[in-house]
Amino acid sequence: MRKPEYIIGIDPDCDKSGFAWIEVKSRAIRLYSLTFPELIDKLLHGRGAIPNTIVVVEAGWLSESHWHLTRWDNARLAAAKGNAVGRNHETGRKIVEMCRHKGLTVYEQQPLRKCWKGKDGKISHQEISQFIPNFPNRSNQETRDAALIAWNWAGFPIRTLR
Questions:
Q1: How many domains are there within the chain?
Q2: Domain range enclosing 148
Q3: Does pLDDT of 57 surpass 90?
Q4: pLDDT, tens digit (0-9, with 9 covering 90-100), for 105-158
Q5: Which of 64, 67, 128, 134 has the most Cβ atoms closer than 10 angstroms to its Cβ?
Q6: pTM, entire model
Q7: Within a domain: residue 158?
Q8: Domain with 93 in it: what CATH number?
Q9: Which pLDDT value is given to residue 4?
């Protein structure tokens, strides 16, 4: 397959998923926070409908471990965390299923290593702004994760200033 002209990165979430669209040639990036129906509409009638576009979905379900508990969590909190993780994974699986059903090129990406300075090792707005030119002034964790997935898939450099 030739190099794609556009890459869509998706960080699935049961409420609003992060959606990042990158034009590979210019490195232009657009970020969206979308509900499941809005995301499917954007994939089928918007950015995803452009030829030579690939979709990359963060696939947490491919990880061997999903242990997010702390020693202070009680049974109720543990169950709530497990429920939330399961809902997010199922949202991601449904996004992949819809992409394949509609003939879009989709890849499942294991979550990238959490080596950043943000909470729980996640990337902060300040860090991602250092290596993605013209990164939007406002972002949330889902859109930053989606942008990082797409940027990494494009093979662009990821480095920060120390």
A1: 1
A2: 6-153
A3: yes
A4: 999 998 776 666 666 667 777 787 777 888 888 888 899 889 989 988 988 877
A5: 128
A6: 0.84
A7: no
A8: 3.30.420
A9: 92
